[in-house]
Amino acid sequence: MKKIALIAAISIFSLISCNEKLNSESSNIKENKEETKMIPENLKYAYFSSGCFWGTEYWFEKGKGVYEVVSGYAGGHKINPTYQEVCTGLTGHLETVQVAYNPDETTYEDLVKLFFETHDFTQKNGQGPDIGSQYLSAIFYQTEEEKEIAQKYIDMLKEKKL
Q1: Do residues 88 and 25 lie in contact, with contact meaning Cβ atoms separated by under 8 Å?
Q2: Among candidate residues 83, 49, 87, 85, the one with its CA nearest the CA of residue 69
Q3: Angstrom distance (rounded) from CA 23 to CA 51
Q4: Phi, psi for residue 75 in degrees, rounded to 5
Q5: How far is CA 136 from CA 21, 49, 66, 128, in A?
Q6: Which residues are tagged catalytic?
């Protein structure tokens, strides 16, 4: 009988301890939600391909005024390709990042400059050790103004014979 009482007491103590742990974790979750970054209302988006998207993501995340960088694919002929499909080089897609930025803190031109500064845009069919058409360098502009900014940098680099 004493063993049953002891087991019951330990079980009750364990349940109370677990409940306290859950309550404290719940309050941490609430605190973390309150600390999330506010999304600026005027976010703009830019799209760049410069090799492996994880490396590209790394550099753009360090950019001033950049809110978020998301990896994905651009171009190509297959709808919603998988990573494995894109890696074959047969879908026509490029590994691409979407850069969400606050135009009050940075400009599209600053992002284009960062794009050219952080990879070897002269390398053919890849980037560094990553070889394949999915790693090519590209800027996906959305407006005529963005096209002109990108073209200005391309022309300047051609003039310098880079």
Answers
A1: no
A2: 49
A3: 45
A4: 75, -160
A5: 50, 7, 23, 11
A6: 52
CB 106 within 8 A of CB 66: yes
Tokens read off for 146: 């963005």
What is the token pair recorded at 89? 């080089």
Whole-angstrom CA distances from 118 to 52, 58, 101, 121 are 12, 10, 18, 9
Model pTM?
0.74
Got the DSSP string for 28-96? HHHHHHHTSPPPPTT-EEEEEEESSHHHHHHHHHTSTTEEEEEEEEEESSSSS--HHHHHTT-S-EEEE
If one compares 89 and 34, the residue with the highest pLDDT of the two is 89
Q: Quick one: which H or E segment has residue 99?
A: strand 93-101
| Tokens linked to 97 | 């990042």
Encoded tokens for 111? 């992002």
Q: How far apart are CA 111 and CA 114, in angstroms?
A: 5
**With left for phi above 0 and alpha for psi between -120 and 50, is residue 65 left, alpha or beta?**
left
Residue whose entry in the numeric block shows the structure tokens 């859950």: 22
Tokens of residue 119, six digits: 């990879």
Tens digits of residue pLDDT in 2-40: 444 433 333 333 333 334 443 434 333 334 444 566 777
